[in-house]
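Work Package 3 (structural annotation) set out to generate three-dimensional models for the target panel prioritized at the project kickoff. During this period the team completed the workflow that converts sequence records into discrete structure tokens, so that structures can be stored uniformly alongside our sequence database. As a representative example, we reproduce one entry of 493 residues exactly as it appears in the project archive.
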Amino acid sequence: MGHAYSSIIADFFARLKRIQGFNVFFLTGTDEHGQKIQRAAEKKGMDPLLFCNEISKTFRDLAKKLNLSNTDFIRTTESRHSKSVINLWNILEKKGEIYLSKYSGWYSVSDEAFYNEDEIEEINGKKLSKSSGSPVEWIEEESYFFKLSKWQNNLLKFYSDNPNFILPESRKNEVISFVKSGLKDLSVSRKSFSWGIKVPSNKEHVIYVWLDALTNYLSALNYPNEKDDLYKNFWPANVHLIGKDILRFHAIYWPAFLLAADLKPPQRVYGHGWILSGEEKMSKSKGNILDPLEIIETYGLDPLRYYLIKEVSFGNDGNISKKKLENCINSDLANNYGNFCQRVISFAEKNTQLKIPIKDKFNNEDINLLNNFKSNYKKLIEYSNYQNVNAYIDFIVNQLFKSNKYFNDQEPWKKKNDTKRLNTIVYVSLELIRKTSILLYPIIPETSLKVLSIFGISEDEISFESILDNDFLTPNIEINTLDILFKKIEIKD
């Protein structure tokens, strides 16, 4: 579920920026090297690459089931990726940012992370990471090191000069506090296993999985060819959306690597929270998983997307359950959005022959409701620019409540003798459906497209800016009927 959440959130922003007129490159993929993968493959008696082929296919299939609009899917076992990693390594080595020494310390295979003594604890005779709870083991071996300590002040200056580089604010404070406490040089190679990209100057060593994995953002853009159109158009990336458990790698190690190589860091790293079951992070090892595929099979994809985006406060941990999902489907999707669409279209079918009616002059109630999109337009753009997911969706929910109230209060069914006013109410209501569906498109794309299609609007024609237009719909154009969008769920205590 955690991977599904990250992917859906990223897809939300990608779709939102596209309908705002931006050329968007949305990257996802699989990190396939490291000791954890090698051990998992050995446990199954499989070649590591064949094992990764299976895993990667699973994630590709999930991407399709989640209706992700990703531009590319990168695998760290691809040759284009290895080429990028080796080039970055060579630059760092040539600049004297990497040196050979000996590592001794605590390492978590599952986290693929090195830990200081003060970052581990002993519980029931086992050494564990305080942050993740994962087992750690003591290792001593020859290793290449990246001069991370050298970049401590540079990183602090970079954070100061780029105050929105790390969001939300709480995550930024955590990172800055960690960096100020003192950075040690980082081990960036291993000799105890073989599954990974070899250090070009010393094949006995495998490049540390995080130096390897992080470079995927560059390799998907054809780095080191900095003249390539993909690289020129999309680097530095606008935002990396990642789980808070890998924030250190993205907000400390990654910009340090890039700055050391004279490359620009991404513009922002946003560390979102965990998906919780009760008070625990969902994980296979804890057996508390809610399977997104099972949720989709039972409730549908768009309800899952909507629920995760709305009910998880973006940037914080989110506690989810089937009961909460069912309540959300009923209240927001069936009773609010679905009900409004159905009522208006059904009324139009009976009273305007399923045509966009010719409106009369708008009254104050009409104008105030329609112009609410215009008066909040800049705020909606700002929400998307700063990943303020919840403020964005709160606007939609409130607007839908207002739209339902408008239709109730205007009582068009009592205006049969005043066709001008009846037609105007229907026109305004249809415009509200159109505008709201455009805002909902990045969240529930399948359902929104179904609704927009009744107006003859295709996916390529969706324009965020068109929510400013109160006269978008052309009178006398026929519209289609609309099936029930969301079935209300009977909730049993």
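The longest strand covers residues 98-108.
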